[in-house]
Amino acid sequence: MAEEVILRFDEVNFEYEHNKPILDEASFSVRRGAKITLMGQNGAGKSSLFALIMGELQPKSGRVSITNGATIATARQVVARENLELTIDEYFAEAFELAPGNLASRISKVLTAVNLDAPINKRVGDLSGGQQARLLLAFALIQNPDILLLDEPTNNLDQAGIDHLIEFLVMYDKTVIVISHDADFLNCFTEGVIYLDVFTHKIETYVGDYYSVVEEIGKRIEREQRKNAQLKKQIIDRKEKVNFFANKGGKMRKLAKKLKDETAELEEEMIDVRQEDKTIREFDIEAQDITGEIVKISAVKIIHHHEPIIKKVDKIIRQRMHLLVTGPNGVGKSTFLRSLVGGKNEQAQILDNVRVGYYSQDFSNLDFNQTVYDSLSGALARGADTQAMRSAAAGFLLHGDLMGRLVSELSEGQKGLLSFARLKLMRPGLLILDEPTNHINFRHLPVIAQAINGYAGALIMVSHMPEFVKQIKFDDYLDLGKI
Description:
alpha/beta; Rossmann fold; six-stranded mixed sheet; five-stranded parallel sheet; 15 helices; globular
């Protein structure tokens, strides 16, 4: 008996306004209970494909079919800004048209499933990034969906959180489709890949674990490139013969025509080799020339059993010093960084006149109503010009067609690259980076790590990605879980 197909795309075409194509005759199916990875470059339209599955967007043509009215829920990348003021129980009530009478017990059950210990009267915006990541998954689970869509679920999670999520997904018996740039996470539980090509807008499907599929794709591209190289050599040879015989006249001219026709056939055989992700250009972040005690930290507020505690510390950060802040989800790392940036922490002070470059894990420091151009121009250091700005933007794959778009219209990955472009343009004296790998394609991470490692100003960073952290030399550490 064939396994039941729960989701099917039949010849689906989709585009945004201004004829921006996303899908071109996309066809694929997903069986009930499958665990599938959705791959594609930043801006390829992965989140749009999720919206098509959810029915939030409609295809231009073709059909998206959900078998027997199967229910769907999405664990999104970030909590919507309008929901940050809600309490946890009010947030879960938003999942239902009419809140069920047993909502409290259902909330307790899903919070246990995602390993989140938090009082339900706590404000969502007061949760840490890792706690919000767990909350987003719980919000989807409380709807008991037949199809669970996960959009970058490991963002902000510490290793314990990622391990718990993997264990949960391995045991979960329903259909899961996940978008993630975390290769190790994906390889632990997915059994197939749907690949969305940003250049051709075509869909390809592969069976196997994540690493096997990536290897298969790489080998196929190598074969296609070799075949193209052979064809190109033949085409050049034929064209040279055509030019030679065309000037001879008579039978030689007929031979030239025959060779010309054969050359056209060879050109048609050239394979449209998929263009892999472009990697951002190598870059540096020039530091503001400033001396002295750039940051002085005498105490930090940590969260222990949901209660704030002030702990005395003695940290001084000068130019060229790199500090790594660590600790479990919910201990208060992001809160500490936000209070430092906002000047609201009397026990952690930044020297006057220091330009602070801040990478916020939720991009709350970006104005979503600005255009990309205005966001970049607002970050320009004194003396820089718009030509330098456009060049820097292009290095982060923010090309001309994106400059007029609103920041809110960018994918999360593009917002991350915009944030790094702004940091480059600012020439800050202090970099404060809160989960700078969030939403960023793994191909870009070595370039970003190199730029951070070479930064000559003061640096304070939080990151839960060990492989990224290892690429950066730190002079000091602050573990909020052990002070």
